Amino acid sequence: MIATFALPIAALIIGFVLVFRLPALPPAWAPYVALSLLAGFDALIGGLRARLEGKFDEAVFVTGFFANMVLAALLSYLGDKLGVDLYLAVTVALGIRVFTNLGRIRGLLVTTRHERRQNQQASGSE
Amino acid sequence: MASPPPVGRHWVLAITGICLVLGALLGVQVHTQVVRGETEVVRRTSMMWQMLSEARALGERQNKEIERLRMQVSKYESEASGGKGLTKLVSEELQSSRAATGLLPMKGPGVELVLDDSTMKVGSGVGDQDLYVLHDWDLIQIANELWAAGAEAMSLNGQRLVTGSAITCSGALVQVNRTTVSAPFTFLAIGNRDNLMSALNIRGGTLDGLRRLEFVVKLTPGEEVMVPAISIAPTYQYAKPALQERVP
Fold first, then answer.
1. Is B201 within 8 Å of B207 (Cβ atoms)?
2. A93 to chain B nearest CA, in Å?
3. Per-residue model confidence as pLDDT tens digits over A75-115
């Protein structure tokens, strides 16, 4: 389990360190990058949930990741141009989704553990 | 058993790629925020430095101006004491100009007017607190009435009112000649006492309205009222005397 996630976590750290040395973006872009980040985390956690539910599809995952990031940034940019705080809508929607997915993942992990224990007890009693 | 069906090792690779992008984005964002914080501090510091150096330069310039004017005055005065024709005329002209611009303290018959906020308890009457405190516009109206009644020199809380004196509001306080003053407000005005008194006491006038709302209003005529000189002489940055047009 830990070995499986070593690679993604290493990638996260490497990406961070690599880019941190590059020149910073214009401060005006910061809100959009932040929303893209949120969308990216949402897609990542959604992917993990799909994996646990056995519905993981690479193509869906990768396209969803990039599309959501771009959409989130685009929507808030549009909101700024129109004078509507659409970034709030994005933040709330994605935030709720992240929490829901995390809750589902926790539930899935707990049930698999219970099932495993029951299986062990069942095999032990035989 | 709800164990995930085999989807191969590819899902780990996909997530790894995504994590790389996410990490990069995170790095960009954190870096931007750090840089933004730094530049903000630098910007503010340099702004304040600029303000400080400007204020210092202004102070220095004004000190030089004071020194120059003092020299000029003493020169003129020593020449005037010689009492020779033209110099005497110039000296008199200078005196009257200085009086007109408020550079000389003035004395003469006039009135003293002391004003303070209403003694009514807030909440005992209608309306909000705003009604029971003195505002800049009350003072402007009184100053205007005094000028209209023929006041020749006037001061408010020790600030001489001259051309270019502004009475403005700054939060809970009032500014006169860019100096902050607060209640009680004391007007000193030199002029025809009877005219000044009756102009201020006119029915329906500013003082009448203030008395109705139980403001403290003390108006007393004086034999000899002393009006102080202006503390900072006016400077002319844009206006220049158009001498050519007047002198043929």
1. yes
2. 19
3. 888 988 898 888 888 899 999 999 999 999 999 888 888 88
Q: Spell out a b/e string for B59-69, using b for 16 or more CB atoms within 10 Å of the CB, else e.
A: eeeeeeeeeee
Residue A80 within any structural domain of the chain: yes
Query: Which residues of chain A have a CB within 8 Å of the CB of B18?
Result: 8, 40, 43-44, 47, 61-62, 65
Longest CA–CA span in chain B (Å) reads: 121
Q: Is residue B216 domain-shared with residue B114, that is, in the same domain? A: yes
Domain end: B62, B80, B100, which one? B100
Domain limit, last residue, from B76, B100, B124:
B100
In this structure, the strands spanning B159-160 and B153-156 are antiparallel
* Nearest residue of chain B to residue A30 (CA atoms): B29
Interface test with B, best of A1, A2, A16, A110 (most B CBs within 10 A): A16
Closest residue to A12, CB basis, from B14, B23, B32: B23
Residue B5: DSSP 8-state: P
Q: Domain of B218: which CATH number?
A: 3.30.70.1880
In a domain, B185, yes or no: yes
Q: Is residue B247 part of a domain?
A: no
**Domain total in chain B:** 2
The number of folded domains in chain A is 1
Q: Which structural domain range is residue A92 located in?
A: 30-125
Could you tell me if A35 lies within 8 Å of chain B, comparing CB atoms?
Answer: no
Taking an 8 Å cut-off on Cβ atoms, the answer to whether A20 and B19 are in contact is no
Residue-wise pLDDT for A21-66, tens only, equals: 777 777 778 888 888 999 999 999 998 898 888 888 888 888 989 9
Are B139 and B218 in the same domain?
yes
User: How far apart (Å, rounded) are the C-alpha atoms in residues B29 and B22?
Assistant: 10
β-bridge partners, B217: B115
- This complex has an ipTM of 0.78
What pTM did the predictor assign?
0.45
- Nearest-CA distance B51 → chain A (Å): 26
Same domain for B85 and B140, yes or no, is no
Helix (H, G, I), strand (E, B) or coil at B229: coil
**CB nearest A61 (choices: B14, B21, B39):** B14
B188 inside domain: yes
